[in-house]
Amino acid sequence: QVQLVESGGGLVQPGGSLRLSCAASGSIFQIISMGWYRQAPGKQRELVARISVGGSTDYADSVKGRFTISRDNAKNTVYLQMNSLKPEDTAVYYCNSYPQPVVKDYWGQGTQVTVSS
């Protein structure tokens, strides 16, 4: 059974940092690329960062140099270290397989990140 559980969000001031975690159940997540996505109010969900099984990474231009994605395949966990946070980073953050959900239309509950003074 596939399950994704995101955690680590919260309220942070501009310039602050957060580390998000995504615990994935299901061995398939060890052999596929993973991504962090976000959805701000009134906007479509967008890809923020992705990581291959081998550890190659790619980032949206808006977060390059500030966010770092990593994974621990032994723990079936994906992380997103977010530094120098900006108000425009405010969104619900989700993890999932890349380029599309391994289970059609399945997304976890996400974790809310709010950047505000």
Helix content: under 10%
**Strand sequence of the main sheet, in spatial order?**
2-10-9-4-5-6
Biggest sheet layout: 6 strands, mixed
Computed Rg: 13 Å
What is the count of β-strands?
Answer: 10
The quaternary organization reads as single chain
- DSSP summary: helix tally: 0
Shape: globular
Structural class by sheet pairing and helices:
mainly beta
The fraction of residues in strands falls at over 45%
The unreliable regions are: none
Alpha carbon gap, first and last residue: 40 Å
Give the rounded overall mean pLDDT: 95
Description of the structure:
The chain has 117 residues and is an all-beta fold. The protein has no helices and 10 strands. The chain has strands at 3-7, 10-12, 18-25, 34-39, 46-51, 57-59, 67-72, 77-82, 91-97, 111-115. The strands form 2 sheets. The chain has a 6-stranded mixed sheet, with no helix packed on it. A 4-stranded antiparallel sheet has the order 1-3-8-7, with no helix packed on it. The radius of gyration is 13 Å and the shape is globular. The mean pLDDT is 95.
Short description:
The chain has 117 residues and is mainly beta. It has strands at 3-7, 10-12, 18-25, 34-39, 46-51, 57-59, 67-72, 77-82, 91-97, 111-115. The protein has no helices and ten strands.
Features of this protein?
single chain; 117 residues; mainly beta; 6-stranded mixed sheet; 4-stranded antiparallel sheet; globular
Layout of strands and helices, then pairs:
Elements: E1 3-7, E2 10-12, E3 18-25, E4 34-39, E5 46-51, E6 57-59, E7 67-72, E8 77-82, E9 91-97, E10 111-115
Parallel strand pairs: 2-10
Antiparallel strand pairs: 1-3, 3-8, 4-5, 4-9, 5-6, 7-8, 9-10
